[in-house]
Amino acid sequence: MDQDKALTAEELQNHVAAVFRDHMPFNQLLGMKISQFDQSGVEIRLPWHDGLMGNPIQKILHGGVTAAILDTAGGLMAILEAVRHMPQVNLVEFQKKISRMSTIDMRVDYLRPGKGEEFIATAKVIRKGSRVAVCRMELHNDAGEHIAFGTATYMVS
Amino acid sequence: MDQDKALTAEELQNHVAAVFRDHMPFNQLLGMKISQFDQSGVEIRLPWHDGLMGNPIQKILHGGVTAAILDTAGGLMAILEAVRHMPQVNLVEFQKKISRMSTIDMRVDYLRPGKGEEFIATAKVIRKGSRVAVCRMELHNDAGEHIAFGTATYMVS
Amino acid sequence: MDQDKALTAEELQNHVAAVFRDHMPFNQLLGMKISQFDQSGVEIRLPWHDGLMGNPIQKILHGGVTAAILDTAGGLMAILEAVRHMPQVNLVEFQKKISRMSTIDMRVDYLRPGKGEEFIATAKVIRKGSRVAVCRMELHNDAGEHIAFGTATYMVS
Amino acid sequence: MDQDKALTAEELQNHVAAVFRDHMPFNQLLGMKISQFDQSGVEIRLPWHDGLMGNPIQKILHGGVTAAILDTAGGLMAILEAVRHMPQVNLVEFQKKISRMSTIDMRVDYLRPGKGEEFIATAKVIRKGSRVAVCRMELHNDAGEHIAFGTATYMVS
Question: Where does C85-143 have alpha helices with state H?
Fold first, then answer.
């Protein structure tokens, strides 16, 4: 990829997905995978494994795992929102912008015990902006049960 | 330990610490250790390792790790609060009560990038009660910098 | 109404609506009115008047008004949830139960400036329970624009 | 005051206090008064009157009043934070900047019933910045009892 060339939307998305997969070790530690990442939405999948267990009696997700996957889904959605406000950027400029993004605050509402074979997090933007974006996230299990809600505010520039 | 005998405060604390260490795999996956857990307070320590990395460029904690350690510190504090409201209980009764406890909601405020060799989470109760407790948590690094605040509401019975 | 007689669902709802209207002065100070309050949902309406103005330049709702109407809609929804878990109660018992209900915590997300001729708040329960209920609330204006989201945790017994 | 002249810190503070008092009707509807507003901190006072009552049985503050006074204290603190990041501004420029400020989100934790003759809200900045500031607020009554905590994120430019 020519580093001085303005990136297409697809190239940006592929770049983010590659960074997520190859350079964010915590995502691998948990086993999170991006299953959707484009203008129509974000979806992250996390298969159950015993390392995610927070409650030894009930075999359910640790609350911190729930928070982590919700923050990750919201953060990816915030990147998509940031991209919408970017002029044409090349790879170096994009990386610089992305490295300045961060979560400002997040609320998680735990609705029911995190039981399941797989967990699916989705996100949408509820407050758009060039500097700050607010996202709402949902976590469901593979049986379609709603495990948790999240709401988070992101610095996007 | 005689399972029918009422537990002393010290036995309860030792039991919780043992469960935390031996039966909550996610705590080990991250590397969290209880460094204090008694009526005067709760402290959890987490040494940095690359698996916790959320941002490949800045080498900082994943926001989900911050949320996980804050929720864990608050949850332990909520157990101490629950114990205060318990009549004398034996081990089986205690385990039953503890297994019904859960996080209802949590807010995390990310104050600065999570850089450091070790991270220390502390917690205090701001709303006491026999059914619901609200805790405030703080995360600092080994240099004393304040990384994040948390506020969480726990079901304690 | 015979005070010893078990209340019907309709009598409970009428009683709550009367208390809201006649004995909660702040609701009148703002001008909030219950436009729906039954098992199918809650709706509160608030017509604009200059006393609600928080920003003199833009003529928009004070953020505290937004918080107040969202908390009120969520609180009424939590009462409906509490009623579902109540055995048959007479008026005195009901009043005693209701007086113990309270908001534990609330998050408000301000999405756009609060402009309009009238504001409509709605609520739904996202975590049900006999002791704690969590509600999500929305505020729209009369043009259908979405002004704010709320999420609140209520003690219901 | 010469509208083209750069404002001193004192002139800015006096201007904000005058707008608060004379042009924000909701502040008067409640009866909120600024008792401190300078670089060392913010304090707002609200004397009890029956119009603030949310619970007719216990004679306590409506939860919306608590949210309103906390948001107001935090918003004033965010203005002070914004001023720190402003170059020399004249009155017109300052008004333009201030009119773009807004609350993004807020969490309120209700600790105990809002009883008292007077209520005092204070605020401090926990995350500083030229675009976004996060504040923590506290509400006490005249007997020194702690009624509520708040945490809010503000757009400051």
Answer: 91-99
Among residues D110, D113, D104, D109, the alpha carbon closest in space to that of D133 is found at D104
- Give the chains touching D; criterion: ≥3 Cβ pairs < 8 Å: A, B, C
Chain B hits for D126, Cβ within 8 Å? 109, 111, 149
* Shortest Cα–Cα distance, C77 to chain B (Å): 18
CA distance C102 to A33: 41
Please, which residues have CB within 8 angstroms of residue A131's CB and are 6 or more apart in sequence?
A155, A156, A157, D131, D132, D155
- Distance CA(C22)–CA(C75), nearest Å, equals 17
pLDDT in tens, chain D (157 residues): 566 788 888 888 888 888 888 888 999 999 999 999 987 889 999 999 999 998 777 789 999 999 999 999 999 999 988 888 777 888 888 888 888 899 999 999 999 999 999 999 999 999 998 899 999 999 999 999 999 999 999 999 8
Contact B143, B64 (CB under 8 A): no
In chain D, domain spans:
9-155
Q: Which chain A residue has the Cα nearest residue B72?
A: A64
ipTM for the predicted complex comes to 0.93
Confidence at residue B55, expressed as pLDDT on a 0 to 100 scale: 76
Chain C interface residues (partner D, CB cutoff 8 A)? 19, 23-30, 50-58, 62-65, 67-69, 71-72, 75, 95, 99, 102-110, 113
Pairs across B and D, CB distance < 8 A: 28
From D105, D131, D155, residue closest to A105, measured CB to CB = D105
Partners of B106 in beta bridges: A108, B152
Single-letter code of the amino acid located at A23: H
Please list every residue in chain D whose beta carbon sits closer than 8 Å to the beta carbon of residue B112.
127
Which helix (H) or strand (E) segment holds residue B82: the answer is helix B63-84
Using a CB-CB cut-off of 8 Å, the residues of chain B touching A30 are 64
| Closest residue by Cα to residue A152 from A97, A120, A109 | A109
**Minimum distance, in Å, between the CA of residue B39 and any CA atom of chain A:** 23
Q: How far is CA C34 from CA A49, C7, C49, C68, C134, in A?
A: 48, 20, 17, 14, 20
Instruction: List for chain A the helix, strand, coil content (%; round to 5).
Output: 35, 35, 30
Distance CA D42, CA D136 (A): 12
Cα–Cα distance for residue pair C77/C59, rounded to 1 Å: 30
Q: Which residue of A has its CA nearest to B68?
A: A64
- Are D132 and A127 inside 8 Å of each other by CB? no
Decide if C119 contacts C60 (C-beta within 8 A): no
Q: Which amino acid is at B99?
A: S
A–D: how many Cβ contacts below 8 A?
A: 25
Contact C89, D63 (CB under 8 A): no
For residues B68 and B74, what is the distance between their CA atoms, to the nearest angstrom? Answer: 10
- In a mutagenesis test of the C interface, which of B105, B154, B157 is the best target, namely the one with the most C β-carbons within 10 Å? B105
pTM of the model: 0.94
Q: Are A136 and C149 in contact (CB < 8 Å)?
A: yes
Query: Which CATH number is associated with domain C9-155?
Result: 3.10.129.10
- Residue C75 C-alpha from the chain's centroid: 5
Residues of chain C contacting B105 with CB distance shorter than 8 Å: 105, 134, 151, 153
